[in-house]
């Protein structure tokens, strides 16, 4: 029904959280039966947030999110605060370039090549068998064989 006016969005500024789900965490079930957890730092005005104030200019983070972040960092050995290194690419000077990797024919082969080989082999097999079977399958040869079989059966 497209006329449904009841919305899940918080249009009237009512930003009340529950003890299980603080204001800065959104948990949504996904189709694959996993849960999606999102941090909603700007979901409500600062005065209406759960803690009511900010520390060091950053929005307050719930203990659930902090615990999830610690588990993530422990699991994937990521150091918090480590800046990513800048990648720099250098090319040799002059006209001579060095070939680093060449794709071998073996690496490029796929199932389609085997399918093409099988198709060619089958076509050549048909062509070679056709020269043997063609005289046997002619109407004249079949009529002669029919007469021989039933002529000998009629005389017996």
UniProtKB/TrEMBL annotation:
Alphabetical keyword list: Host-virus interaction, Inhibition of host innate immune response by virus, Inhibition of host interferon signaling pathway by virus, Interferon antiviral system evasion, Late protein, Viral immunoevasion
GO terms assigned for molecular function: protein phosphatase regulator activity
Coiled coil: none
Residue intervals of the Protein phosphatase 1 regulatory subunit 15A/B C-terminal domain: 101-148
Annotated transmembrane regions: none
GO term, biological process aspect, one: response to endoplasmic reticulum stress
GO CC aspect terms: endoplasmic reticulum; protein phosphatase type 1 complex
One Pfam assignment: PP1c_bdg
Keyword DNA-binding found: no
Keyword Methyltransferase (UniProt): no
Subunit note: Interacts (via C-terminus) with host PPP1CB.
Family to which the UniProt record says this protein belongs: Belongs to the asfivirus DP71L family.
Function: Interacts with the host phosphatase PP1 catalytic subunit (PPP1CB) and recruits it to dephosphorylate EIF2S1/eIF2alpha and therefore restores the host translation that has been shut-down by the host. Also inhibits the EIF2S1/eIF2alpha-ATF4-DDIT3/CHOP pathway.
Entry protein name: Protein DP71L
């Amino acid at each position: 029904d497209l006329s449904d006016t009841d919305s899940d969005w918080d249009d009237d500024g009512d930003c009340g959280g529950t003890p299980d789900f603080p204001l800065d965490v959104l948990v949504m079930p996904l189709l694959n039966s996993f849960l999606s957890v999102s941090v909603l730092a700007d979901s409500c005005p600062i005065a209406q947030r759960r803690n009511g104030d900010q520390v060091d200019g950053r929005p307050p983070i719930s203990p659930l999110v902090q615990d999830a972040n610690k588990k993530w960092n422990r699991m994937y050995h990521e150091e918090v605060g480590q800046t990513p290194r800048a990648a720099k690419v250098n090319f040799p000077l002059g006209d001579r370039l060095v070939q680093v990797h060449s794709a071998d024919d073996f690496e490029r082969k796929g199932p389609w090549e085997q399918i093409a080989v099988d198709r060619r082999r089958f076509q050549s097999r048909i062509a070679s068998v056709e020269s043997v079977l063609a005289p046997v399958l002619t109407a004249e040869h079949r009529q002669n064989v029919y007469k021989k079989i039933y002529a000998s059966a009629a005389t017996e």
